[in-house]
Amino acid sequence: METILAQGLEAFKKHNDPPSIPDIPHLDGLVRITEAGKRTLWITFVVMAVASLIFLLMSFRQPAKARIFHHVTFFITATAAVSYYCMASGMGNAIIKAPGNHAFREVYYARYLDWLITTPLLLLDCCLLAGVPAAEIVLIILADIGMILTGLLAGVDDGRTTRWGLFTISCLFFLYVLWGLLFSARNTAFGKSDRVGKLYLGIAVYTAVLWIAYPVVWAFAEGTNSITGDTEVLAYAILDIAAKAVFGGWLLLAHENVEETKIQLPNSWVTAPNSGYGRVSQQRRMLSSSSRPRKRDGRSHSSLVSLNTIYAPTRFMSWSCWC
């Protein structure tokens, strides 16, 4: 009897035991930036902000119609400055599953938002320098946007297969951008003049080499989780400073010395059109004055008509009585 009771009690305990909690992967393998990485972000923010101020001041040396390169280049570094300010302040990041057992990595999607704005502006600078037709500029920029968006999706994806599939698609978009920069736009630039062609070729090759380094850093960082967060931040910061601040300074200084590269915007783009308010008002006054009744002997024709209308019956009655 005691054996039966003991077995029943043991079965009751097993039935009422709390369910076992499965092992949850802890963030022990989290790869993120340290204080050194944050200092790198703050330094890059200062560099981009100073470059933006310099480019803005340089624009005042040119007439308003010839500032298109200065304004575009200013917004490139200004956008990058805002992006680095956000990243240095701890914003614009996410923790994703990285390659490896229980491995996680801090990914800054603010960097991709920065590239989504700045890389089309960089391409616009290059295309305007070469004199590329508008339709071709649109195609190159659309390919660039596709490259950045697929790169962003690859960076935040936690699946090994889909991550590298999206990365491959991004590289295909990148190949089209490189073709537009190094071949199509190059031919257009040399068609303008040899000076423009040589200037553009130097800037285009410089930009292409730097841009090729970005997917290499991505492969070691988000792709395979092989480098630390501080190394990733430092690599991207060096590339961004070279591809934006140094690129902008080179472009603007060379652009001012090559007359064929200067673009004059229409007056309607830089000056407010004359609203014509004065002329319209004057015309209205002329029309209103012409429609007024003419004056006779200091009195208007309308007043004479009204007086004649009022006194006409009186005159008729007096004439009848006289008769």
Automatic annotation (TrEMBL):
InterPro entries: Arc/bac/fun_rhodopsins, Rhodopsin_retinal_BS. It holds the Pfam family Bac_rhodopsin. Gene3D superfamilies: Rhodopsin 7-helix transmembrane proteins (1.20.1070.10). The chain crosses the membrane at residues 40-60, 72-92, 112-130, 137-156, 162-185, 197-221, 233-253. It comes from the Eukaryota. GO terms for cellular component: endoplasmic reticulum; plasma membrane. It is found in: Membrane. It is a multi-pass membrane protein. SUPFAM superfamilies: Family A G protein-coupled receptor-like. Signal peptide: none annotated. SMART domains: Bac_rhodopsin. Keywords: Chromophore, Membrane, Photoreceptor protein, Receptor, Retinal protein, Sensory transduction, Transmembrane, Transmembrane helix. GO terms for biological process: phototransduction. GO terms for molecular function: monoatomic ion channel activity; photoreceptor activity. Belongs to the archaeal/bacterial/fungal opsin family. This is Opsin-1. It comes from Mixia osmundae (strain CBS 9802 / IAM 14324 / JCM 22182 / KY 12970). The lineage of its organism: Eukaryota, Fungi, Dikarya, Basidiomycota, Pucciniomycotina. The gene is Mo01791.
